[in-house]
Amino acid sequence: MIFGELNPQLQELVKRRFKEPTLVQELGIPQVLSGANTLIIAQVGTGKTEAAMLPIFNFILEKKAEPISALYITPLKALNRDLLDRLIWWSEQLGLEISVRHGDTSAYERKLQTEFPPHLLITTLETIQPILTGKKFRENLRNVKYVIIDEVHEIADSKRGVQLAIGLERLRKLCGEFQLIMLSATVGEPEKVSEFFAGNRPVKIVKAVTSKQMEIKVINPKTKTEDKKIADKIFSSEETAARLRTIMDLIKNSKATLTFTNTREFAEILANRIKIIDKKFPIAIHHSSLSKEVRIKAEKEFKEEKLKSLISTSSLQLGIDIGAVEQVLQYMSPRQVSQLIQRIGRSGHGIERVSKGIVISTDEDDIFESSIIARKALAEELEEVRFHKNSFDVLAHQIVGLTFDFGTIPIEKAYEIVKRATPYKDLKLTEFLEVCKTIEKIGLIFLDSNIKKRRRGFEYYFSQLSTIPDVKQYKVVNTLDNSFVGVLDEEFVAVHGQPNTSFIVKGEAWKIIDVSEDKIFVEPTLDIEAAVPGWEGELIPVPFEVAQEVGMLRTSVFESLKGENEREVVAEIMSKYPVDENCAKKIVSGIKLQRKYGVVPDNKTIVVEDIDDLVVINSCFGSQINETLGRFLASQLASRVGSVGLRTDPYRIMIQFQDKRKNMEMIKEILTTTNPEHLATYLELALAKSELFAWKFVHVAKRFGAMGRHVEYGKFLLQKIIDEYSGTPIYKETLKELETEKLDIERTTEILRKIQNKEILLIFKTGISHIGKIGLIHKFAELVPPEKPEKEILDIFKKRIMGSHVRLVCMNCGQWHETFSLEELKEETKCKKCKAKILAVVHPKNFEILKIIEKGLEKKQLKPDEQKRFERVKETSEIFLNYGKKAAIVLVGRGIGPDTAKRILLKYHSNLNALLKDILEAERNYLKTRKYWKI
Q1: Cis (ω within 30 of 0) for the bond into 40?
Q2: Rounded distance, CA 319 to CA 310, Å?
Q3: Per-residue confidence (pLDDT) for residue 780, from 0 to 100
Q4: Where are the domains of the chain?
């Protein structure tokens, strides 16, 4: 048995923890004991941590290694308590020192770690950066012989991973070569991931995953009689009610369930609807926007079995210790195979237990996509990993870090260290020097033939330890009643934050009236089908391979229906994909409806359809390619016909024109005549002018130290800064990051080439097909209740206006003023001193205006600004004299001054509601136009 190869002291302890080695321990321990760099892939709860750590404890004991001999690096901000407890237990039993270092470690603990270093230091990705530069701590790091990186799949495709890759090369320069052990539950392309952190050093890959350990089923619940009551209660369709009922039943019938959604907001909506159905239902929400206290409370109650389910996003995807989980529910497609495997791996947390997952699918697109992802998960067909290459912003930070490692470092030596890291293996010296010159200009280093540290670099380095940007959030305010609706992340605002755009937040549709520095003013809208969900920016992209197989399945069913009966086709689908009968039937019925149209969009066929001013390009290329192709088409069309609307999903590109022209002909011409080699240039020109580019530029510039971390910039000033940095590494990195994370230019270029070579068929049809229609009815409107009717909108607005307060000030005697709510204000209100009705209408908290009125009435000298305000107030008193309470109602409206008030009051209004409609329209107009006013 493999445990027999360990130190006798360890063997005794192992007997207390394990009866026999697990598969991952059987395969992993020998490789680590051999001294090889190793990537260990195994599911959650199979003992892979011990597979890595037992040999390392063995080495420390056998070789009497000096501290710090091992570093355990985790991407989790909150360290896994279960993992920590296990490592502490082993260390204490073996008489080894262990310590934890992260952002919240106190100064006292940090000092102790420096003076009395532990054998094993558990730390986070970001904490590696400061400990590499500490003079005393660096001496302790010279002893490092083993580095363990947990959850490598979480970081390999991010800039956090890039930063760690260079950090490890800096560490090697300090302590020499160390043994690298990487751990992962799921990883696509393990060879590339292991090379990413190991450089060109050989790595042994240990894969200890068997598909038998996992059960996955995609279901689409049928409606029952009881669902009508639920639908009425939550204002939804019966189909949605059936899904909610099924989720609740599955949770009730299981001891502990994790329920995953794709976004934070959808988790909120789902939990809200369940609580409407049953207030006492034992669930709680868990996502990254909630406070640490709320999350810990939910975890604790779930572990204690007070709650039967946590409704979560990726915040529970990694190894947070929440006890035993019997099953995992995924509401709607998880969008990626690795996401599904990672989430389902949280259930059956034990060596001999099965991981059980159920995907609750919704509409037709969702059923197709979920079926393919579930099949791929069972077959372990994971996505390719897209790496960031030559990230200039991370490089800038690491160059400054090298100046603290060495004080002064020759350019060639710094370049050599950086080049050893895989993400920079193709970095040219000219690019390296360009970044050096940029940060020299910013004032972070001194540069000649050497790179030298500079005092300003110190503050920059420690303020940018994390590559994760501080995401600004905008408060969403309902203009009708000034109520707080929710928040939107700045990425969503950058992409969709234009006036008149409709979006969904907290299950309701809203139309943007105006966007200010930190607020978005909205009002309820009836336009739910056109609304973009507020969580769209959070959605992970659906890969090309998944969308392609959706196309293949469409054609397979299309062809099967020609020669087989429906029952046979349903059975065939169920034999190939882990779906229930209802899913298979809906796949068949959807393709039957499409057959009437004569053609099905698939992996090798693009179907372009038009209806009125809208063109729908049905293309099974996934999120990133459709976004790339869509942006390219939109930019080319805009130069010919003016601005066009664009929306994409993994299976469609939807373009809205200002009017109905020969739009299909233009799209055909662009797709068939544009030189594919020019695609990247066209896209970069279009991207550089976009809101998305400006948003991303700010993050990159902050990582470079070119912009203050918490400084806000108006659009005009920001554009000036962007223009100033045009062509620099900051500008180039912004484009690269967008192209890596949001787009896929390489594959889109190939697709354009295939269209022109007739390898991909391009078919144009008038009218809209069944598959095209699915894209028009936005599928993410799932769980959204019916729209608010106009009367309800007006009632909300009326409540706000009539509940407002005004201060009336006598402009005759100047001796009286009083505050009234408009609800209580009498029609014949007069000055209580002189009985005059010449009353100015002012804000109740504007005390400064009272002094100005007093000075004006006493004929004292007023400053120009005071004179203007006095005249304005006098105008309101004249309006009140003529119109009484009506004047106060109008003047309380947001942005309504005397001129606008007069225009409104001169119109005939049959009742209060008619007057309120005009006030509401004036408020909307003010919010839309105020940015153009000279203040």
Answers
A1: no
A2: 15
A3: 39
A4: 2-209, 213-378, 392-463, 473-535, 598-781, 791-932
Instruction: Tell me whether the CATH fold assigned to 2-209 matches the one assigned to 392-463.
Output: no
State the Cα–Cα distance between residues 329 and 359, nearest whole angstrom. 6
Look at residue 79 in the predicted model and tell me its pLDDT.
56
Instruction: Using DSSP, state whether 317 is helix, strand or coil.
Output: coil
Give pLDDT, residue 505.
67
User: Hunting for tokens 């190991």 — which residue is that?
Assistant: 198
SS (H, E, C) 166-231: HHHHHHHHHHCCCEEEEEECCCCCHHHHHHHHHCCCCCEEEEECCHHHEEEEEECCCCCCCHHHHH
Contact by Cβ (8 Å): 868, 878: no
- Cβ(627)–Cβ(743) under 8 Å? yes
Give the Å distances, CA to CA, from 513 to 133, 704, 714, 881, 926.
49, 35, 19, 33, 9
User: Hey, is 468 helix, strand or coil?
Assistant: coil
Find the helix packing angle between 663-673 and 622-641, rounded to 10°: 120
Report pLDDT for 781: 42
Domain at 2-209: CATH architecture: 3-Layer(aba) Sandwich (3.40)
Mean pLDDT, 10 residues at a time, the chain of 935 residues: 84 85 90 94 81 93 90 75 79 89 81 90 90 89 95 88 95 95 86 92 86 81 91 83 94 90 81 84 78 75 86 66 79 91 74 80 94 93 89 96 94 96 96 96 94 93 84 80 77 70 70 82 68 61 96 94 88 95 95 92 94 90 94 89 85 86 86 93 86 85 84 68 90 92 92 96 92 72 46 77 91 91 88 91 89 89 90 92 92 89 88 88 73 37
The residue among 144, 65, 64, 131 whose CA lies nearest residue 100 is 131
Q: Which residues of 513-536 are buried (b: 16+ CB within 10 A; e: fewer)?
A: bbbeeeebbbbbbbebebbbbbbb
Integer Cα distance of 874 and 870 in angstroms? 6
Class of domain 213-378: alpha beta
Residue 922 near residue 904 (C-beta atoms within 8 A): yes
Distance CA 46, CA 21 (A): 10
How much is the pLDDT for 495? 63
pTM, whole model, 2 decimals? 0.77
Query: Tell me, which fold does domain 392-463 have in CATH?
Result: Arc Repressor Mutant, subunit A (1.10.10)
Could you tell me the end-to-end alpha-carbon distance of the chain, in angstroms, rounded to an integer? Answer: 81
* DSSP string covering 325-354: --EEEEES--SSHHHHHHHHTTSS-STTPP
Cβ proximity of 479 and 522 under 8 Å = yes
